[in-house]
Amino acid sequence: MLWKFPEVSLAPEVIWNPGGIFPITNTLLCTWITILALVAFFYFGTRNASLIPSGFQNFVEWIVEFLVNLVNGVVGSRKDKAARFFPWVASFFIFILCANLMDVLPGIDTIGSLKGEEIAHVGGNCAPVLGFLPSCQPLSLGPIHFLFGNISNLIIPWFRPPTTDLNLTVAMALLSVGATQFFGFYHLGAKEHLSKYFNFRALRKGPMGLIDVVVGLLEIISEAARIISFSFRLFGNIFAGSLVLAAFAFILPFVAAIIFIPFEIFVAVMQALIFALLTLVFMEIGTTSHEAHEEHLVEEEQKVLQGEKAAA
Amino acid sequence: MTLILAASPLEGLGINTFAFLSQLVSFIIVLILLRKWALPTVQRMLDRRAAIIREGIENAERAREELKNATARAEQLLAEARREAQEVIANAQRAAEREARRIEEEALARARQIEQQQIEHIRQEAARARADLGRLVVNLSIAAASKVISKSVDSSDNRRLVEEFVNASQATKGQ
């Protein structure tokens, strides 16, 4: 066997633990690399910015303008809301996109430190590869080793896409839902916002009001479920993409990458967009009062009735 | 293919407090960086450009409006100038016609005056010619009579007689 399928680990691996108190995982390292990449991205994109943009400045402004238009398109005429939501939506999109795109970079999941004990254990099952390369010994070039055969997957990767770590996706989901709640309280006031979940006033309408109370309580579950859906959707897609790349690199080396790397770039963009767009939509819904929503529905009904009358 | 899973579900998923907090803090740093520095920098540039473009469009709109007004004013001035020119031409034509008539009338008057003068002159010439002719007739008559009577006649007496005769003839003829 030329190489083995890589080991699949849901948990990120600790690559360095300075002092035994600060375990740095490969995903955390890549999160920091992503932060540095973003700083470089914006630094070079805004350095020597001219009124007539060109090259990289144009690209950076295109992304920011796209996000501004996205937020304005959803929020509408409420400029104050758009200004508050925009940094969150833009941060989620840009950071997640940058983190997801790490998946297709060479060296991700493939450069790392050797699992010494396991290599020693596998050593007994040596088999020749292509007739001359021993599969149980790394091909050593000084401090650099190339792994083949049975030991090819015995590696702790130093670099792993940050969004394949549930710690990050859950943290972002919590921030998204937390910010949505904050904006709900800020724009509607505590009483109005809490009445969405504890709608006991509906009981005045009679027994049918009980349904509204239950729906309100279900909203709490829905909010909690958002954290899970946000975090697992992003994690699942990028982790699966990472596995697909690894699997096809194992099944059909070099050739499969031509098909799957563009596909993974598409998934990376879509997942970043979905996370940012859902955050934006939930923020917009969370800051719209029941009365305004009902008034809007009444207006819509009246419009429909007027249309029917006109047609008649 | 080996799937590594741990005993506890959360541990199996790789979720632990320290990693979670590390990632949370890291993302909050991203949020602060983008919110305080990166996004405002780009947005300022976008807003500045939008303001300049808006100003440019407004200026162009204003310039177009001014051009439209100027064109209308120029057309109005042109129409006025054309009208004034027409008036000037008409006045000039009228003046020219008046002048022509005056010149014509003067010319006619002068012509009539010259004509009268010429007629008078002709009349005088005719009178003189007639007088000369009368004298010539007298002379010829005397000469003829002398030959007829073969006798010299006193010239001065006869001349006076003939002249009286001729004058009387002319007077009779004139009546």
From TrEMBL, chain A:
Segments passing through the bilayer: 20-44, 85-102, 166-186, 234-259, 265-283
Gene that this polypeptide is encoded by: atpB
Gene Ontology molecular function terms on file: proton-transporting ATP synthase activity, rotational mechanism
Keyword Transmembrane helix in record: yes
PANTHER family according to UniProt: ATP SYNTHASE SUBUNIT A, CHLOROPLASTIC
The name this protein goes by in its record: ATP synthase subunit a
Keyword Transferase assigned: no
Function according to Swiss-Prot or TrEMBL: Key component of the proton channel; it plays a direct role in the translocation of protons across the membrane.
Species of origin: Thermogemmatispora aurantia
Membrane topology annotation: Multi-pass membrane protein
Signal peptide start and end residues: none
Gene Ontology cellular component annotations, sorted alphabetically: plasma membrane; proton-transporting ATP synthase complex
Protein keywords: ATP synthesis, Cell membrane, CF(0), Hydrogen ion transport, Ion transport, Membrane, Transmembrane, Transmembrane helix, Transport
Compartments, record wording: Cell membrane; Membrane
Similarity field: Belongs to the ATPase A chain family.
Gene Ontology biological process terms from the UniProt entry: proton motive force-driven plasma membrane ATP synthesis
HAMAP family, A to Z: ATP_synth_a_bact
Automatic annotation (TrEMBL), chain B:
Function per UniProt: Component of the F(0) channel, it forms part of the peripheral stalk, linking F(1) to F(0).
Keyword Transport attributed: yes
InterPro entries for this protein: ATP_synth_b/b'su_bac/chlpt, ATP_synth_F0_bsu_bac, ATP_synthase_B_chain
HAMAP family: ATP_synth_b_bprime
Family listed: Belongs to the ATPase B chain family.
Regions annotated as coiled coil: 50-132
Record protein name field: ATP synthase subunit b
UniProt organism field: Thermogemmatispora aurantia
Compartment annotation: Cell membrane; Endomembrane system
Protein keywords: ATP synthesis, Cell membrane, CF(0), Coiled coil, Hydrogen ion transport, Ion transport, Membrane, Transmembrane, Transmembrane helix, Transport
GO CC entries: endomembrane system; plasma membrane; proton-transporting ATP synthase complex
Main location: membrane
Key word Chaperone present: no
CDD domains, alphabetized: ATP-synt_Fo_b
UniProt-recorded Gene Ontology molecular function terms: proton-transporting ATP synthase activity, rotational mechanism; proton-transporting ATPase activity, rotational mechanism
Lineage per the UniProt record: Bacteria, Bacillati, Chloroflexota, Ktedonobacteria, Thermogemmatisporales
